[in-house]
Write a structure and sequence with these properties.
Layout: H1 6-14, H2 20-26, H3 36-41, H4 46-53, H5 58-68, H6 73-103, H7 111-120
Helix pairs in contact: 4-5
Length: 121
Amino acid sequence: MPSLSSHEHFVNAGSNDLFISTARVSHGPVVPSRCISLLMFFPNSPIWLVFSIFPFSAPVTMILRLGITGVPTWQLAVSMAVLIASILGGLWIAAKLLRIDLLMYGKRPRIREIVRALRAG
């Protein structure tokens, strides 16, 4: 298969979406398609271990690694624990910010007030 240049990767990724607005949203911070070949050849490299634990790229990278090579159980457990902790942390922060927004209806919260409310809870 011939190698694609960098702009052809973006055309290929964008061609899967019907609207431009969804094309910008759906291709989030996951493993770039150029790096997939490196994952195929070096699935146990330290960089892929980091990508397997980092919450934004962990779901895709860990599934690819599981399909390519045997992943130690501790790496899978750490990846899942970090994902669950980041989800719970994001929900906690979102709930706190919603509470601030509801209590300060009609008034714009300042950064100082937001930080104070996050520390208080």
